[in-house]
Queue: 2 jobs
Job 1
Amino acid sequence: MSALSALIRRDIRIALRVGGGALIGVLFFLTVVVLMPFAVGPDLALLSRLGPAILWLGALLASLLTLDRLFMADHEDGSLDLITMSRTPLELACAAKALAHWLAAGLPLIVATPVLGLLLNLDMVATGAVALTLLAGTPALTFTGMIGAALAVTLHRGGLLMAVLVLPLSIPVLIFGVAASQAVIVGPMSFGAPFSILCALSLVSLVVGPFAAAASLRHGLD
Amino acid sequence: MSLLDLANPTRFLALTARVLPWLAAATIILLAVGLYQSATAPDDYQQGATVKIMFIHVPNAWLSMFVWGVMSIASLGTLVWRHPLADVAAKAAAPIGAAFTFLALLTGSLWGRPMWGTYWEWDARLTSVLILFLMYLGLMALWRAVDDPSRAARAAAVLTLVGAINLPIIKFSVDWWNTLHQPASVMRISGSALDKSFLIPLLVMAIAFTLLFVTLHLAAMRNEILRRRVRSLQMMQASRVAFSSEAGTGARGENASNEVGAA
């Protein structure tokens, strides 16, 4: 347990200090949201209708694009080999790394959401709904994307190929995340159903993600 | 004859060489019978002659999912049993599955034109097949991105199994999303109310297409095995050339030093 918490603390520290680049995700998120009005026009009514979708897409891309470095830096300096050989099960180590990544790169996105909601003319309730669904949904994105990150490091390929492989897997999260936030803002739908499914998706990926990532690391690194 | 006996590629090649002509013949006969039956099937009272697209569309859609199932079993073979032919099977199946999925999309869209009035509708079934198609293409891109086949095989196996877990979830969520966003579509195939005059040709076509897949798959596996043999022969040849030239320079160096010593 202390090994895992040490791993989490180490990863967060690396991500937040110089060279880590966890906060670049927030900058990317901001840039995507700022680009949107240029694409659809500065119509505030339209923007507030599209707001949850824009925020969700931005957060999805930001959290997946920061992921391909999850194992890469550790692989380059050799610490990934030590983690693989240590007595801590590789599945748990992968889960710890993903958790650290979510804390360092995912949580800032959620903290930034209220500010970006202002830019998109979302009111308090809508912003709160989007932030809450992001809080429930981004772990699923991180833990699914971790599989892509593990494949990236074993194949020495990153970037576009991994995005192409992982993005289709994140469609359910996007659907239920946007649906839950729209349910609060406009919908006749209840908030509870899509939100519980979103939480369920996160919990399932919490189990499947580490196992798949560990399997691909174990078979791929040699 | 167990699955383990087939682990020897040479034995597999010999067996498939004997089986393939029979499979191909059976496929052609069944396809001919199925096509004839579906051409002579009565028109639907609502959809007219366009209902005949169904006899091509449904087998393709069935195979688009069946092939992913085959690839998942092959991936288990790669990761769990390290069966030497499993990754050959998985690799050979991906382009065939992508082709069937593409045909399902194409015929679905052609069917949608007279039924819905547009070529593309964000209908739940079409959308989830489109996502399946994207995943096939991604898998093929993964196979092509890595030149070492065994390394690519393990990565592709992990991805195939994750996809197999995720595909039902995607299907369910797209269904849910569709009911949320769309009023009932014009076309609705109600339950199992398919008449026998449609059902029998459809079943024959489904079996014929499955046989077609098995034939194509075995042939593609043979090609892949032969391709790998060519590759390993080339590697051996290249290393032999490299080794002999290296040995040659080494020998020359030795001679030179001997000469120097002699001098």
Job 2
Amino acid sequence: MTALSALIRRDIRIALRVGGGALIGVLFFLTVVVLMPFAVGPDLALLSRLGPAILWLGALLASLLTLDRLFMADHEDGSLDLITMSRTPLELACAAKALAHWLAAGLPLIVATPVLGLLLNLDMVATGAVALTLLAGTPALTFTGMIGAALAVTLHRGGLLMAVLVLPLSIPVLIFGVAASQAAITGPLSFGAPFSILCALSLVSLVIGPFAAAASLKHGLD
Amino acid sequence: MSLIDLANPTRFLALSARVLPWLAAATIILLGIGLYQSALAPDDYQQGATVKIMFIHVPNAWLSMFVWGVMSVASLGTLVWRHPLADVAAKAAAPIGASFTFLALLTGSLWGRPMWGTYWEWDARLTSVLILFLMYLGLMALWRAVEDPSRAARAAAVLTLVGALNLPIIKFSVDWWNTLHQPASVMRMGGSTLDKAFLIPLLVMAVAFTLLFVTLHLAAMRNEILRRRVRSLQMMQASRVAFSSEVGTGSRQESASKGAA
Amino acid sequence: MNGLVPVKMELAGRGITCVRGGREVFSGLDFEAASGEAVAVVGRNGSGKTSLLRLIAGLLVPAGGTIVLDGGDADMTLPEQCHYLGHRDALKPALSVAENLSFWAEFLGGERCDATDSLATVGLDHATDLPASFLSAGQRRRLSLARLLTVRRPIWLLDEPTTALDAAGQDMFGTLMRDHLARGGMIIAAIHGPLGIDARELRIGGAA
């Protein structure tokens, strides 16, 4: 347990210090959302209708882009070798790293959501609904994206290829995340059904992600 | 003939060379029968002659999923049993699967034109197949992105299995999304009430297309094995050149080769 | 600190074949090492010295052959009883010297010594709170050595450990290795130059 908490604390510390990527993710999120009105026009009614979708897309892209180097940095400086050799199972170490990433890069996105909701003319309820669905759904994005980050180590390359591989896998999260937010805002469906499915997706990815990532890392050692 | 014998690529090459002509012949004959029967099948009272696209569309759609299943089994072979032919099978299957998926999309869209009045509709089935197509393309991009086949094989195997776990979830989500946005169903296919006159040609075509896949897959596996042999021969040659230039500047080897020239 | 009871250990590799990227690096390699003994792996560039260390560390899978450890901790795998010091330092430039060391101490676990003592031993006690990015190559190497001291592991796998160390650093490192061997440890080092202590030579890939 100390091993895992040490790993989580280290990763959060690195993410928040100079050169870490946590705040860049929020900045990216902000920029993407600000870009949207330029594409669809400054019509506030339209923006508030598209609001949840825009926020979800922004969060999806932001969390994917910051995930890119989740394992790559440890691979490049040799830390990954020591983590693999250690007495902590690699699956648990992967889960700990993903959790640390979510705490450092995912949570700030959710904190930033109310501010961005104002820009998109979302009312309190709508903003709350989007923030809540992001809270339930972004772990699924992190834990699925982690598989891509592990593949990036095996393949010695990340970036666009990883996005292409991982984005289709995150379609269900996007569907239920946006559906739950819309349900809370306009109805007619209940918020509960899509929201529970969203939570279920997060739980499933919590199991699949670490195993797939560890398998990829183990088989990709060189 | 056990699986161990097949594990030997040379043995596989010899065996597949013997089987391939028979498979190809069977494929052609069945395809011929299937096409003939399809042409004879009656027009649908609603859809007219356009219903005949079904005989091509459905087998393609069926194979688009079947091939991913084949790749998943091959991926298990790579990761769990470290079978030497498994990653060859997985790699060879991907472009074929992508082609079937593309044909399913194309025929679906051509079918949609008279049915819906538009080439593309965000219909649940078509959308799922489109995502499947994207995943095939991603997998092919992954194979192409890495020089060393064994590295790419392991990464592709992990991704294929994750995809296999995710595909039902994606299918379910898209269905749900579709009912949410399109309450009125766009198209109801014959479903369970499919007439015998349609069913028999359809089954023949499905078997013919499956045989077509097996034939193409075996041929593609042979190509992949030969391609890897060429690659390792080239690597051996490269290391020999590097070695002789490293050891023998002005040594016997070089003068010998000059003498030979 | 002296809780380590010297247990007789023997590490033996039989008929190891290593294939990387479709190329056979070496094949049919036999070796053995016992506790209290240092083995120096030598050979020309590309002969597979690093690969051998990574095979022992479980970071590569042998294409053939076996590596067996006799007399170690039965509850742990071979890699879990090894320290691996590779070309890369496993240091995070954003963290301070002390944070880097204490992270590895906590993460690797097992029997530990005081981190400040190890930093003093390797001559980095003046830089404890500096970010690791300020360290020179030699100082980074010293910090990696402090990791070997802080967390106890019976087997040290060292890949060209003396690079970037100055003369004083090499002397210090020689002493550390002798202490480790005296406590019943085992060292397998891939080297080009002298290791600094008496070691049995294991030549791979034929004469240089």
